[in-house]
Amino acid sequence: MKINIGGILDMSTVDYPGKVSSVVFFCGCNFRCPFCYNVSLVRGEACEEVEVEEVVKKIKGFKEFIDSVTITGGEPTLQEEGLKELCVRLKNMKLLVKLDTNGYRPEVLKELVKLVDFVSLDVKAPPDKYNFLSGIECELQKIKKSIEILKNSGIDYELRTTVVPGVNDGVDDIKKLCEFIGKVKCYVLQQFRPEGGTLDPKFSETEKMDRNRLWELAKVAKSFGLNVKIRTEEDGERVVE
């Protein structure tokens, strides 16, 4: 079976929390987030169709240096059958598997939680800004359903929001987000960084999210009784006490 990918990163220490991971980049996306920096993956540029077997062989070549594989995009769940086959093959290699997703295909996620060890689900914005920051007319019930699937899955997971200056960086934004997601295992606020270009060129001119402001917003999320982390270029990942 073939999958459409933009490449494979041999080794990463930042994509799977606490693990050394290879990263497989799936092409295509059902969102058009204006601040997205994976422009070529979303548009399907510089992508190629390869056999799952070819991906597995490449990962076998550096298996002694990794303990996991992160599958990201784009949106991997759009290639449901190829994604499932890849997950099964990786699990047979005794590797941990992490999936990054926007949560917009809960019916696929429901099957995938049986095949992976960790899921990072991107929650783009509070409900009133979701259409703008996802770039589509978004059915929020799909996101809510995916969150509930993760809560009941028994696997490790995190919800994460990329905080963009002037867009979703208000205290009210974070409060609405926390009300939307409810009690989850881990909530991560990520620093927006425009380096390398964005899907909407205007966001390339937006300032990087200030880490001190991000810390303040994380404390707002913490007040909802959540386990909260922040991820920044300057400090990496930090737990909010």
Into how many domains do the coordinates divide? 1
Helical percent range? 25-40%
The fourth-level CATH homologous superfamily is: Aldolase class I
Unreliable stretches covering 5 or more consecutive residues? none
Q: Which CATH architecture?
A: Alpha-Beta Barrel
- Largest β sheet strand count, sense and barrel closure: 10 strands, mixed
The run of helices and strands is EEHEHEHEHEHHEHEHEE
Q: Pairing-aware structural class of the strands and helices?
A: alpha/beta
CATH fold label: TIM Barrel
Estimate the global geometry from the Cα principal axes.
globular
Radius of gyration from CA coordinates: 17 Å
DSSP, total strands: 10
Summarize the structure.
This protein is of the alpha/beta class and 241 residues long.
Write the layout of secondary structure elements.
Elements: E1 2-12, E2 21-26, H1 39-43, E3 48-51, H2 52-60, E4 68-72, H3 80-92, E5 96-101, H4 106-112, E6 118-122, H5 130-134, H6 140-151, E7 156-163, H7 171-181, E8 187-191, H8 211-222, E9 228-232, E10 236-239
Parallel strand pairs: 2-4, 4-5, 5-6, 6-7, 7-8, 8-9
Antiparallel strand pairs: 1-2, 1-3, 9-10
Helix pairs in contact: 2-3, 4-6, 7-8
